[in-house]
Every structure is written in C-alpha cells, then in structure tokens.
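Support reply, case 0932

Customer input (verbatim):
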Amino acid sequence: MSQPSALPTEVTQIDGDVRSTKLDLLSVEEPMEIRLGYGPEDGREQKSLAITMRTPGHDFELALGFLFTEGIIEGMEQIQNIVYCTDDETGELTDNVVRVELSPTLKIEWSQFERNFYTNSSCGICGKASIESLESFCPTKVSSNIKVNDAIIHGLSDKMRVKQNVFEHTGGLHGSAVFDQNGELLMMREDIGRHNAVDKIVGASLFQKMLPLESHILMLSGRCSFELMQKAILARIPIIVAIGASSSLAVNTAQEYGVTLLGFTRNNSFNIYSHPERIG
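Our regenerated output:
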C-alpha cells in the first residue's frame, strides 16, 4: 500500500502588490502506529508501541529502523512478519497502522523501553542521563578503518540533493543518505521528521542485510542532534556528515563513541567536530 508523499493545495500568493492564486504542493504528514505481536506461538499478544508523525512511504523500513535503534531488535532473524493492519470497522487494510510480528523466542523487558520512550519525549532529561541510556544497550565504541578524502566529502551534498525528489517539489522534507567510502550514493530516504528519515535508512539496511554500516557515511540534510547520533551509533556508522549544525550533546557523544562528525557541510567547506583522523 502507498499514500502520496505530497498533495496539491490552492494558495494565495502575495508578491509585492500583486495577489494571485496558484497550486502548491505540500509534504504529507500522517500518523503511523507501530504495533508488536509477541510471545509464544500458543499465546501471542499485541502491544501498541509508538505513534510517529511521518511522511508515507517506506513504512515497513521505518518500523524496523525504529525497533532497531530503540534496542528492541538486533536483526531480521528476530522478525517473523510485518504487515499493515486491518481496520476493525471496515475490514480493509489501513496504511497508518503497521504490525510487526516478533520471534516467539524474543524476550522483551517492556518497562525498560517504556522508560526510554518517556525520557526521549521529555524536555527535562539531562545529557548525562541520555548518554547513560545509550550505554545500556550500546556499550562499545564504533570501530572502523574507513578513511575518506576531502574531495569526496565536498561532493556528497549535491549527490543527495539530486535524489530528494519530494523536497524538490515541496521544500518540506528532511533527507538522510548512505554513501560508501568512495562517495557512491547507496540509498536516500525523505520524511517530515529527521529521526524518521534515519530510521528508514536503518530499516532499509536491515532489509538489505547491510548492517553493520562500519564502512559507510551517513549524510543528514539538516542538523545533527543526540537522537540522530544515537541511531547512527547503533547502526555502527563511523562518519556522519550534516549539512547543518550539530548540538553539544551530539558532539560529546561522537567523541565518546568514536564517531567522526562533520557539520556545516558545503561544496568546498565543512567543520570536523570529532575524530578528524578519518578525513583527509
């Protein structure tokens, strides 16, 4: 199933003293609920895990990426199936509810993840607590011998921009892309939420059996926050290239976990915030 990623709307445009009516394209934003089926074969249960506001498209990748970057699953071997749910009233499939069937052997400590989801949405959580939460299910640093020269970095933004088809028409979506160490674009995903765009990348990597991404580069169309850094670390990505700024906690976490973080990346310039030895 698929919903459009952009929809037309009529707008009134003011240009100086001129008023006119025209059609414009808007990025679509819709809720998506992630439900989990879990437990033994003879006693399956269902739990509504999360609702995220997303741009439709690559929904299964989004769900899998979310489960992986939250530490709920470690690989596709823990997934039995993933489907859109059926509407209780109409009996028809709904593309805003995804059910992921987990392996009967997978044991989950639900209280741990409920605390994580609560603190991730809380304005009051401190940086130290955030990093300690990451350490609880990702205790090791990212290790990689990848080395990338400056010229490759300079060309990444243009390569990603060409593939941002919905952004080209709406100007309203974030993009995330994975490159190999030679600067070849392997995949790109867009979404209204920057965290969703990264989860789609991670989910796609799971589907394609590419994880861990220890010899790859992640590019972000905007800033790099702690949340995005955490997701990249769990995917074992050694280099993150952000077109925008980076937060202090993202930089601190990159330094601690062995990630090379670049920001303010333009065609001919960029800043390196951590582990510069991989660049040059």
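We compared this against your earlier run and they match. Two observations from our side: The domain at 150-278 is CATH 3.40.140.10 (Cytidine Deaminase; domain 2). The chain has two domains: 30-133, 150-278. Please reopen the case if you see a mismatch on your end.
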